[in-house]
Amino acid sequence: MNIQRKYSLPNCTLLLEGLSDVTRAAQFQEMRPELSILVNAECYLSGYNQPLTGGREFFESLVRAVSGYAQEFLSSVPNPQAHNQESELVEFQKIDSNRHRLIVHSEGAPEGFESHSKNSKRPPIEIDLNTVQLFDLVEAVDQFFADSQTLPELSLELQPVTRRYGGASQALIRQAVPAAVGVSSLAVAAIAFNLIPPPQIRPPQPKANEQTSSTTKSLTPPASAAVTPIAAATPTPTPTANTKPVVKDLEALLNTVPEITDPSQLRALNRQVYNQIHPAWTKRSGLEQDLIYRLGVAADGAIVGYKAVNKEANQGVGQTPLPNLLYNPANRAPISNEPIAQFRIVFTTSGVLQVSPWRGYARTPEVIGAKITDSKITKSLNQKLYNTVRQSWSGTPTFTRDLKYRVAVNKDGVIADYEPLNQVAFDYFRETPLPKMFNAIYGSNVAAPNAKEPLAHFQVIFKPSGTLEVTPWQGYQ
Question: Using one digit for the tens of pLDDT, what is the confidence trace for 381-404?
Fold first, then answer.
């Protein structure tokens, strides 16, 4: 049957069309059909109306040229694989630091015919790309290699460039590695600088039930681009005390695991993500643009990956705590088929952290857990909470807007959970007694909420005038 595979980025789309080998497809009846015979390949680039098209030879040459040129671009070491016009249909030429020429030669005369005239070939197609377009093309190729059900026998062999030819400095390495946040990028950067031996591209014949997002065939390097790869932590088989997260492509992971979309669960995870990033973000000055990321989070709040959404975010990842917050497989059970939630993270130039679900809330979230609903008990706890907070709140407020919180207490009136409801409540939470009250009980003001017993929930408002309001919880607005 005819099969299509599409790998899309904002500035580039790869469309592959082909067939499945019926002799091999029988082994994978429960999986996505395998595209094993490529019939046609199309590459769409922003700003150009017509796609680049060709067959298997064109596509393989495109893959080699893109990967070789990206390695060259990261390392500043010439890579002949990117410019081999003698044996390749596709080559690259660097025009300047932000312009790159993609050249596609014609495939020549059909097999069985000889050509003695240069005019028998069509003139080459030349397309000038900026760096953003180039690395969207790089990631589209990388997405293809991460897809184990498309041309699985096609692999890419990258050779390390000897250090003495490149003169790659430690400064260049520091510039390249933060940008290389995808599996392929990091590996290619390391190969370019001869820091690690060439990796084994494809493990031998994985079983059908082991086909997960960790299957990766590519080592192509996304760098400064409008959209860059997700960096995701993938566990090693036998973690040790010194195990560090291994960077993998989370796009492939998101294609193979369920996505968490329940609004109530997203709301709870939203808080956990904020509580991890907020205290770890220490470099809050010097940002010229907001840094925007897409985050992948497991059901227990572990950050399993991130993806730069804008160019500034890719370049400024070192000013964020995200690389250090990826979960460590030595401290947590491995990520396998766990559901993943996605969030939008913004490190603003004003130093304010913004966290929200990537797709928003499908409906109004609810508080998770058992609730105390008896009106008499709720009324009593309302007054008890007011008295406790009122006695602990002193000093002159410096905020000029209401600080709104959801506060939960157990049947004894002991605080079990609290949650800021507006941005100013996040910014000025230290002017309230809530973190001290919570820390006194749990040893941390960002501890997980007590969900082992029914709770009564209230809205607590600290007003700039010094007035305190405590009312029964009516739900998220």
Answer: 999 999 999 999 988 899 999 999
User: Angle of helix 131-146 relative to helix 56-75, nearest 10 degrees?
Assistant: 120
Q: Quickly tell me which residue has 């770890």 as its tokens.
A: 280
- Residue 57: helix, strand or coil by DSSP? helix
- pLDDT tens track for 253-301: 666 778 899 999 999 899 889 988 988 998 888 898 999 999 989 888 8
* Res 219: pLDDT: 34
Of 163, 199, 201, 202, whose CA–CA distance to 75 is shortest? 163
Q: Which of 176, 353, 384 is nearest to 271 (CA)?
A: 353
Radius of gyration, CA atoms only, the chain: 27
- Are 101 and 126 contacting, i.e. CB atoms less than 8 angstroms apart? yes
Termini Cα distance of the chain? 50
Contact 236, 317 (CB under 8 A): no
Spatial separation of the C-alpha atoms in residues 448 and 290, rounded to whole Å: 29
User: How many Å separate Cα 339 from the centre of its chain?
Assistant: 15
Segments of the chain scoring below 50 in pLDDT: 25-30, 108-120, 162-248
Sort residue 40 into left (φ over 0), alpha (ψ -120 to 50) or beta. Answer: beta
Strand order across the 12-19 sheet: 2-9, 12-19, 37-45, 52-54
Instruction: Tell me which residue of 210, 66, 217, 32 sits closest to 136, measured CA to CA.
Output: 66
Q: How many CB atoms within 10 Å of residue 379?
A: 12
Burial class for 274, CB neighbours closer than 10 Å (0-12, 13-18, 19+): buried
39 within 8 A of 19, measured Cβ to Cβ: yes
DSSP 326-340: BPPTTSSPPPSS--E
Q: What angle separates helix 56-75 from helix 183-192, to the nearest 10 degrees?
A: 60
Please report the sign of the dihedral spanned by the C-alpha atoms of residue 253, residue 255, residue 258, residue 259: positive
